[in-house]
TrEMBL record:
Highest taxon listed in the record's lineage: Eukaryota
Signal peptide (from-to): none
GO MF term set: phosphatase activity
InterPro entries per record: HAD-like_hydrolase_phosphatase, HAD-like_sf, HAD_hydro_PyrdxlP_Pase-like, HAD_sf
Keywords: Hydrolase
Protein name: Phosphatase
Amino acid sequence: MSPPAIVFTDWDGTVTLQDSNDVLTDNLGFGYEKRKVLNDRMLNETLSFREGFDEMLRSIPANGHSFQECVDYLLQHIELDPGFKDFYHWCHEQGIPLYVISSGMSPIIEALLKKLLGQQVMDHVTIISNGVEINGNDWHIVYRDDTPFGHDKAASIKQCLENYDLSKRPYLFYCGDGVSDLSAAKSCDLLFARRGKDLVTFCIKQKIHFTQFDSFKDILSNVQKIVSGEKKLEDCFE
């Protein structure tokens, strides 16, 4: 049976208010100023996301911080978007699958999800992200693929959709905030982009339809209206 909709969402800076990788780089790695330089190069497309992200993350163990230290630090500093819990519960009640499609690392996402929402929620949310290889106090990210993003989110979405009978086409939604969400943005019917973030800039530049959100409360309101037929997809386009 086809669900009425399928929701795919980024994790860092989308489901959470802070980007865990930025928090680690700024506080345990080489710091904000150097990260900002790399971010600007990625935005200007003079450096791939994969290369810039890898350089940021490598600065953390280079400063002597183990992976477990990073997890513990994030558990103390990362907050959940205030509307996500209600959004999750509504999706679960409606039989709408929810996938986290992330360029981050699975163990970090799992630890945060368990702390912020509990084990029961973890059992009903599918996480598709990068891995991590740990060798004593040293560690590094293990990318899912060889693409410039390290994780082709569009390919992951396509793979997820193979699990469903799409004869009655469900609405496909994606929620994101950054550069790594761009490929996924083209794979869905409606993209929710966090207001004021890099993804909005890219969507305008590449003429991709989107709607901005401040919290998952906005996303819930729009998705409910679209699924019920009260609102059309194109009514949300900016």
